[in-house]
Amino acid sequence: MSAAAAIACPLCAAQKAQGIFRLESVPVICNQLWPDRAAARAAPAGTVDLQLCTGCGFIWNSAFEPARMAYAPGYENALHFSPRFQAFAAELAAGLVARHGLAGKHVIEIGCGDGYMLDLLAQNGVASATGFDPSMAGASSPFTARDNVEIVGEYFRSGQLDRPFDAILCRHVLEHLDDPLALLSDIRRAIGSRDVPVYFEVPNAGWMLETVSMWDVIYEHVGYWSAPALTALFRRAGFDPVSVGTGYGGQFLMAEAVPARPQPDYLDPGAAQICASARAFGQAADAELQRWRSALQGCSGSIVIWGAGSKGITFANALGEAARGLAAFVDLNPRKHQRFAPGVALPVVAPEELASLRPAMVLIANALYEDEIIAQVQAAGLRPEFAVIAG
Ligand SMILES: [Zn+2]
């Protein structure tokens, strides 16, 4: 841990930053696979230097360079192929329309992706739903088939709105912004004196800290939002959070707020608890990383990681020199096969190739699938050691 440094907090501007966790050479986009080893090795990489503001409890990557994201090629991270997420989103859309009386009204979503949520809102009776997302410029989507659903392929700006709106949604956007207060202030300007509710959803940093989910720390995320930090952001920008709760197994932070007078100096009393959790997280994550490096350097045979998603790829890159024993990723998804993970430049292979790799150790990226993976490996006549990548 580094001592307090003169880095200004992007949320409250206090110079009370404390370093809590650092990862070198992480892929700028960890979910993107590459066609060959050389391209994978040359994939854009950056540093994560997580800082805790001991004033407001906000956590951010002070080594984040926004320009690197702007130049990075697009990536697919839509969650809505998962039945669990579909159920979550359907309940959210119905609940928002009911709680805020949005049937027959006009709703805006900032960072709407392919418009999956806009379509759900329309299904629940909103008169029209307009989304803003620069990644959708020139793209088509099955979710804009309705006449009353529209996607504008640009960044949201208050000046470009041509008619009144009755609610604003913004989901999984804030964690990508290096100046989140600027967006909130612009939304507040767009609302003016009207009584328009907003809904924000972000990954829950409180959950990440408590469960020491260190492999959820990725370059794409510059900000890590806990309830106290999100509350401070709202109040400073002129919103009164009427509810700040969690969902999706505690992994998402969900906040609804209404316009109020700005409190530009607001600090949330819950920040102290977040600071304690963040320091504990940093110590636990450092210890966990050292433990993995020692364990893998002591393994004489080859090692594979089952699961070529962001968790496994972040893990492999964080190992540094200790990644030398890694031979491959194994994944069930055929679209990932014969492609290479960024940074570590390891191939992704099908489970059938395990027999020829004869690994001494299989690292399991997602504990949910531990039993079926062990059964499948043993059914192939292999007897490696197994370990679940915790954190
Ligand atoms: Zn701060």
From TrEMBL:
A molecular-function term among this protein's GO annotations: methyltransferase activity
A biological-process GO annotation: methylation
Segments forming domain C-methyltransferase: 295-379
TM annotation in the entry: none
CDD domains (alphabetical): AdoMet_MTases
Coiled-coil features, chain-numbered ranges: none
Xref: PANTHER family: TRANS-ACONITATE 2-METHYLTRANSFERASE-RELATED
Protein name (database record): Methyltransferase domain-containing protein
Native organism: Leisingera aquaemixtae
Phylogenetic lineage: Bacteria, Pseudomonadati, Pseudomonadota, Alphaproteobacteria, Rhodobacterales
